[in-house]
Amino acid sequence: MLRPQLGDALAILSNGDLLQAYGARDPWDLVDHLSRLELGGTRDTDRHQTLAAAGTIIVGWLSSDDGAVTEEVAGAARTWLAAATRAPDS
Fold first, then answer.
1. Least buried of 2, 5, 61, 75, by fewest C-beta within 10 Å?
2. How much is the pTM?
């Protein structure tokens, strides 16, 4: 049920005119920009996006029948650990 709503939100944040109006490169850059304007600071979206992307690969590996650790999985684990232990942006 949440997936369609998230897709709609991402589609809105990906609108080229909206991105251009705020000088954003992508939806996450737009979220950071609007956070600075409206909330007084960013919410470290880059860190969270990195954790989510790497975590997706790791969870996929955990759910696989193979269990072999590929370079992709090892790289995702290193990336996730680096992002997880990095101090949050202020």
1. 2
2. 0.69
